[in-house]
Design brief:
Purple Acid Phosphatase, chain A, domain 2; eight-stranded mixed beta sheet; alpha/beta; six-stranded mixed beta sheet; 7 helices
Amino acid sequence: MADGLTRRGAIKTAAGAAAVVWSGAGMGQVRGEAETQRKRRRVLRFAHMTDVHVKPEKGAGEGMAAALRHAQGLDDPPELIFNGGDAIMDALGATRERTQLQWDLWNSVLKSECSLPIEHCIGNHDIWGWYKKKSGTVGDEPMWGKAWALEAYGLAKPYRAFDRAGWRFIVLDSVQLREGGGAYTAMLDDEQFDWLAEVLEDTGPGVPVVVISHIPIVSVVPAFFKDYFKDHKTQVPGALLHTDMHRIKDLFYKHKNIRLCLSGHIHLVDRVEYLGVTYICGGAVSGAWWGGDWHECEAGYGVVDLYDDGGFGYEYVPYGWAARE
């Protein structure tokens, strides 16, 4: 395939369920799989668990626990878990009491079921009260907006960068309040964009980069939603894809060491390769918000392998959860 990427197989059996497996060779070089395997060394394996949407109903807490146990019980388990956002069902339009209930459940399951370090990315449903009428908020509450999620995740800011195993991780905050309030859009504000440009400039060209965002920067799956196809046009809302994808693309094009962008939000799995960057939308632990499969995608999580040559592997792993009433 183009851009130095090889397809190891579309379908693989893992823990009794079908799993999509992709592999990327190092830094845009075309290599045979056997040669690549001989020369490169895996430096990190992590689980990308996004869109858990935990809530008291439908056994969601048990489902979250099952996903965590499944990931940690793999024959080759991850060393790290990355929460891709939307940890709780919804805080945008929830009361304080309902929001507290959801975060309490999230923390309880993590405490009892997760033995691995965990990193976090803020999702839109983690944000409290932006839908003021439904949430009963006015906007001046101490925990309003992203403050509650930041506290729950132990973060000082909603975006950050850190280094691990020779790779640089850049965690973005995709979700911005639209002017006038009452809704959100996917984009980076100017301050965050300038920060991103500075981080990339300061990252050595030999250091491979993973970018994590909740809402996809680039994705194909929103085009399959029939509601957005009207008058012979597909019009994807700005709440589903980054509206600033063009300037992010231009920025990424200057930095050839950006290897992988992971996202969630859509609850479906896809892979897009564009200008040397691979964009993967990573499904959802909750599937259809704990209602079964979402379209053709089972509830699951991603397993990502990072290598010392800048290559990566990705596998989407369903964990066999059946919807409950």
